[in-house]
């Protein structure tokens, strides 16, 4: 960041003017040299005189971030981010190093607001959610003062995501609710893509906090918005969430309705990401709703060929393990479930995802029991039973309890 003296010197040289040209009749060459070297501060009168000599506004000299500099920073950020919605760790570190030192001194204007949004997006990949929450609170004040309601809605959404990743589900819901009311208000003009993004997270967090009727209402309105605005770039994710929720909540008619919609959409949108998440859906579909374990294995095999597989590998493995157990292929199932022993962050964040993993723990215990590893089976079924106590009242919760009772009975019988 340039000092006042450096800005004066840069502008003078850019305009090919000498110290004598700027000093004119009101100042001396020596005084101007001291100012340019930051060894003296100009009076308000002299500052105005220098600005007049340079044919610029005083604010160009006093503002540490003129628009040209802010726009250059934004260009640099574009180069780093490359139009990605979410950053990887390397990108996040680059953005943080570029932006964090200047955040406290950013002026109140639109360009600075865009830089602030880039900064808020560094926290998820760095898993710095507590810091993200605090920075988002500051950003809310910043955007309110500028009356930038799109940026405000985006900031509330990011803050809700930060809370969510801290497992503070109620705070996440309350925060996303503010964003949702903002984008639904007729008093603000907010673009449809932002409205869709906020609504998607609103539905997701409603499900996470067991507000099922509200989630369904938001989801229906969200789908209607997509059709009315003819915006489908996020459509497959929305349909998949709706279908997945219907499976978890045991709503077969809705499952089939959303499955048909997803099939039709993916036939139209051949983007690899869209195709990949169709397989994600079927991985759960054939394990949860229409039990066909061989189909699960087929979709799991296809998924591993996609670049996106690394992000969802624990999901692939846990559903593969369940399918192999159902087929009686216990040794292979044990190998699929082995990530429970080695991976630390396999549990997911959303309670619906957690339910799938906790159910997987119970399946793992059953697999170990079938392989004669009784003590290991006891360890994992007890863990699944303890962790299900804080789960939402879903079908997986009851299945874990029933499996726990059955396994403990079998172990007692074996000891008799």
SSE blueprint and pairings:
Elements: H1 4-14, H2 19-23, H3 29-36, H4 44-54, H5 58-62, H6 67-81, H7 89-99, H8 110-120, H9 123-126, H10 129-146, H11 149-165, H12 169-184, H13 192-208, H14 212-229, H15 235-248, H16 252-268, H17 272-289, H18 293-303, H19 309-326, H20 330-337, H21 339-342, H22 351-370, H23 374-387, H24 395-415
Total of helices: 24
Strand content: under 5%
Total strand count, please? 0
| Average predicted confidence as pLDDT | 88
- Note the run of SSEs as H and E: HHHHHHHHHHHHHHHHHHHHHHHH
Helical percent range? over 70%
Can you put this structure into words, describing what you see?
This protein has 416 residues and is mainly α. Helix content is 75%, strand content 0%. It contains 24 helices and no strands. The mean pLDDT is 88.
Summarize the structure.
This protein is mainly alpha-helical and 416 residues long.
């Amino acid at each position: 960041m340039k000092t006042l003296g450096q800005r004066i010197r840069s502008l003078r040289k850019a305009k090919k003017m000498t110290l004598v040209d700027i000093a004119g009749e009101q100042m001396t060459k020596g005084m101007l040299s001291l100012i340019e070297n930051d060894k003296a501060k100009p009076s308000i009168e002299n500052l105005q005189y220098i600005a007049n000599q340079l044919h610029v506004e005083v604010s160009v000299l006093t503002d540490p971030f003129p628009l040209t500099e802010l726009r250059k920073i934004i260009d640099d950020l574009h180069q780093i981010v490359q139009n990605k919605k979410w950053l990887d760790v390397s990108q996040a570190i680059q953005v943080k190093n570029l932006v964090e030192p200047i955040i406290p001194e950013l002026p109140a204007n639109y360009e600075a607001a865009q830089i602030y949004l880039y900064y808020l997006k560094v926290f998820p990949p760095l898993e710095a959610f507590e810091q993200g929450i605090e920075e988002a609170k500051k950003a809310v004040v910043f955007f309110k003062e500028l009356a930038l309601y799109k940026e405000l809605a985006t900031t509330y959404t990011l803050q809700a995501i930060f809370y969510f990743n801290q497992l503070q589900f109620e705070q996440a819901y309350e925060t996303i609710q503010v964003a949702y009311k903002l984008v639904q208000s007729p008093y603000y003009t907010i673009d449809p893509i932002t409205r869709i993004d906020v609504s998607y997270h609103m539905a997701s967090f409603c499900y996470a906090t067991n507000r099922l009727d509200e989630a369904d209402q938001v989801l229906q309105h969200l789908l209607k918005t997509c059709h009315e605005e003819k915006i489908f770039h996020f459509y497959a994710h929305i349909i998949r969430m709706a279908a997945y929720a219907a499976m978890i909540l045991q709503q077969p008619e809705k499952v089939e309705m959303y499955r048909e919609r997803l099939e039709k959409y993916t036939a139209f949108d051949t983007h690899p990401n869209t195709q990949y998440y169709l397989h994600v859906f079927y991985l759960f579909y054939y394990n949860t709703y229409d039990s066909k374990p061989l189909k699960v294995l087929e979709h799991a095999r296809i998924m591993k060929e996609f670049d996106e597989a690394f992000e969802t590998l624990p999901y692939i493995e846990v559903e593969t393990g369940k399918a192999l157990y159902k087929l009686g292929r216990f040794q292979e199932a044990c190998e699929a479930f082995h990530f429970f022993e080695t991976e630390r962050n396999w549990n997911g964040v959303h309670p619906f995802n957690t339910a799938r993993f906790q159910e997987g723990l119970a399946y793992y215990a059953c697999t170990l029991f079938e392989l004669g590893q009784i003590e290991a089976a006891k360890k994992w079924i007890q863990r699944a039973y303890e962790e299900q106590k804080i789960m939402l009242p879903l079908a997986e919760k009851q299945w874990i309890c029933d499996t726990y009772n059955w396994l403990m009975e079998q172990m007692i019988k074996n000891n008799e």
